[in-house]
Amino acid sequence: MSRLFCVRLIVLALTGASITSCGGSPPEKNQPPRVQTTPDQPVRVAAIPPTAPPPVAAESAIVIDVVSGRVLYAKNADAPRAVASTQKLVTALCVLDAGNIDKPVTVEASDEACEPTRLNLKPGEVYPRRELLKVLMVKSANDVARALARDVGGSQEGFAAIMNQKASALGMRNSNFINPNGLPQPGQYSTARDMAIAARAAYRSPLIRSFTATKSMTFTFNDGHTRFVENTNKLLKTVPYCDGLKTGTTNAAGRCLISSGSLNGRSVIVVVLKSTTPNVWKDSSKLLAWALERPATTAGL
């Protein structure tokens, strides 16, 4: 074997080794290709607070963790009852589902057929859905709810059917809605558990969440005059970590509040139904504090 031939063999061998080391060689026969994996992410399950929950005056209440949906506390959570304007969270979800959030809505005379809380829209006025939805979450105006419902559902009855379809899709098993604003009607009801499900869906919508966290706003009417409105949820101003959601009051429902809060890496939703004027705020703030005012932990939320 000549010296030149040996040199060529050595060069070929070195070249092959170089290609293999750079990944240019296919996997060996019968060897399965490597699958890149990432370390398993731990499942973060909300921890129930170690202290006993505070007593609440409300007839129904529930506290859930936003991330996991775990129930941290419940009191008569499955008792059907009127929930007043808290059901406007379902109305908001249905309006968002319809899409075209900036679509103009023309007010009709039938939209005014409601009491007592109204923005006093006038027939023929035109507003984008977005602006109406925002003032609905902040001021809870019943005429605004009717205008949005008619625009999306074609009629109040048509929108109620959409609400019930949405409730069913969310897993709300014990609710029936007849109107978009929560004014009392026979056969209309929900539960604390079902409203917590709706509130969790609303909270996870950046748009609805931002509207429910709005402390005040100025609504501009078509003729140029304005109205300053403040959020009906007083906890937004008294509890630093409260960031939403919706109030409700009728004689049948009593004082109701769905509130949300975030602190120490946790977010919870508190539903309080059939409370009284002084207690609705106390009940809600106590439950928020119980669920959130504890040190953060890596073992659970």
Q: Can you walk me through this structure?
A:
With 301 residues, this protein is of the alpha+beta class. The chain has helices at 3-21, 88-97, 129-139, 142-153, 156-170, 192-203, 206-212, 235-238, 277-292, and strands at residues 60-65, 71-75, 104-106, 126-128, 216-220, 226-230, 242-250, 254-263, 266-275. The chain has a five-stranded antiparallel β-sheet, with helices on both faces. A two-stranded antiparallel sheet has the order 3-4. It has a two-stranded antiparallel sheet with strand order 5-6. A hairpin with a 2-residue loop joins strand 8 and strand 9. The model is unreliable at 1-43 (pLDDT under 50).
SSE blueprint and pairings:
Blueprint: H1 3-21, E1 60-65, E2 71-75, H2 88-97, E3 104-106, E4 126-128, H3 129-139, H4 142-153, H5 156-170, H6 192-203, H7 206-212, E5 216-220, E6 226-230, H8 235-238, E7 242-250, E8 254-263, E9 266-275, H9 277-292
Antiparallel strand pairs: 1-2, 1-9, 3-4, 5-6, 7-8, 8-9
Q: What sequence of helices (H) and strands (E) makes up the elements?
A: HEEHEEHHHHHEEHEEEH
What average pLDDT do the residues reach? 87
Gross geometry: globular
Instruction: Determine the structural class based on helices, strands and strand pairing.
Output: alpha+beta
Into which percentage range does the β-strand content fall? Answer: 15-25%
What is the alpha-carbon Rg in Å?
28 Å
Spatial sequence of strands, sheet with the most strands:
2-1-9-8-7
Helices, by number, come to 9
Please mark out the parts with pLDDT under 50 across 5 or more consecutive residues, or reply none. Answer: 1-43
The largest sheet, given as strand count, sense and whether it forms a barrel, is: 5 strands, antiparallel
How many beta-strand runs? 9
Distance between the termini: 75 Å
Helix content: 25-40%
